[in-house]
Amino acid sequence: MKFKSLFLVILxxxxxxxxxxxxxxIEEEKQKILFISGIGLAATSSYLYLENVWWSDEKTSxxxxxxxxxxxxxxLDKFGHFMGGMIMSDIASQSMIYLGENHDKAxxxxxxxxxxxxxxxxxxxxxxxxxxxxxWDLAFxxxxxxxxxAQHYHSDFRAINFKFSYWKRSSNYEDLQEKRGGVIGGWHxxxxxxxxxxxxxxxxxxxxxxxxxxxxxxxxxxxxxxxTLDENYRKKGGNHEWxxxxxxxxxxxxxxxxxxxxxxxxxxxxxxHFPAPAIRISPKxxxxxxxx
Length: 292
What we know:
- The chain has 2 domains: about 1-155, no CATH class; about 160-290, no CATH class.
- It has 11 helices and 8 strands.
- It has helices at about 5-20, 30-55, 70, 75-100, 105-125, 135-155, 155-160, 170-180, 200-205, 250-255, 260-270, and strands at about 160-165, 195-200, 215-225, 225-230, 235, 240-250, 275-280, 285-290.
- Strands 1-2-3-6-7-8 form a 6-stranded antiparallel sheet. A two-stranded antiparallel ribbon has the order 4-5.
- Helix 1 runs antiparallel to helix 2, helix 1 (about 5-20) runs parallel beside helix 4 (about 75-100) and helix 4 (about 75-100) packs across helix 6.
- The two termini are about 20 Å apart.
């Protein structure tokens, strides 16, 4: 459920990339009108969808999270909030730059918008019967929203990126939902099969002979499928999983593919960790020739 912030901005991102790559035959002013109208339509449609899917339960009074949030996915969802804030901030700032805003101001305004979206999501959660306002979700989402600001001003931060991957390896999520009598929400709620990655540009930090500029090293974070239910049908147990992997910088790997469409597609692809050799270092050592 907490992955909804990232889901929202992915919908938003796909529409914006469509608009960015419209043929330049449209006059500039008409294109701006189309762009702004599209943003409003995409945002409204996404909100209505989420209202129906995630916030359709009977509303309660405003409540704060009572600790269930940290048990829900062993805090893996905090990475989802971080990436949600980061992507929304990036999209908002690039949108404003496209419409003529000063680059520095757009970066800061994008961060504020990304944080505001995270705040709105937590306010909605505060009235949901099973959740509550989570200050940690908001903190991680806002931190992600300001990450592009840090990257804008410092090259070391630009050499660090965050990615996401999903691959169906376990049915633990569906099994627990069936026992609880709950709705099976789909892949966006399926945390045992999600992994979040912090990726480092090797050539920026270390002088290594012959290391390809498009090949990076990543550290992955996930959870295993060992969670069970307590007597109150709340999730408990489970373990964090940590990985080390190779990763591809799609913008550098496909640098010969040029043009507005190519630029935006590569930017979206760079949010995803593609299959690569990996080592799981915790809770038990394991080797994967290709891990997604």
